[in-house]
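User: My instructor asked us to take a sequence, write out its structure as tokens, and then describe one feature of it. I'm not sure where to start. Here is the sequence I was given:
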Amino acid sequence: MDTGPVVERRHARDAGIGWIGKNTCILNQKMGSWLFLGVILAGLEVEPERLLPAADRCGSCTRCIDACPTGALVAPYRMDASLCISYLTIEKRGAIPEELRRPMGRQVFGCDICQDVCPWNRRAPVSGDSELAARGELVNPALEWLAGLDSAGFRRLFRNSPVQRAKLSGLRRNVAIAMGNSMDVGHLTRLREWAAGADAVLAEAAQWAIARLSEGKSQDKIQGQSIQGQGGGGHADAGQAGCDRSVNRP
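Assistant: Let's start with the prediction itself. The structure tokens for your sequence are:
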């Protein structure tokens, strides 16, 4: 009986699949960390193979640690999950700590920055399986489009998708924070609507985002720069945290 979580990467290490990297992911010399791990739980006695564990090939590299926006990788091979953007945007219920909102940027569901920067993923093979391909409409999706999803639209779009773990309320909270970090004042109408709504967590996140945009607007006046044109601020970050990514892309 499956009575609790299984730390698959430890078994993968012991099975010779790879080594556990400084970003706490299993790393394979040919596939990097863009791979799936499967575990079979059985009551049968199986003669174990004597395999040599894979050598740790991270060396002196600290790119994953240096790149983590929230400092979740507190030391090599150690992660504080409560600081991880993936945890914050997927599993975290209620309000996201204010000090972590700016570092989140425009991530609306998950984060793979520590894998994106890993040198071992540069030449990782790309799967030809169509079921693993990212859906076009969910690559760099417009924040306003995500914000406009109702319950039926959310269920239809994300049926059988991990995004359902965040629930519509969690996705909206994440979108509100992303809107605040976008520096795009075009989101103010939606944020004001949410700030006056009945969902207390969403309302607070929207109020924070409004204050963030107001702060940016004041700064913009000082610097004489355009807020609207800063790096596609009206979209979720696709290169780092799109809603529906191919986990084995290079």
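For the description part of your assignment, you could build on this observation: Residues 82 and 88 are 7 Å apart (CA to CA). Try explaining in your own words what that tells you about the chain.
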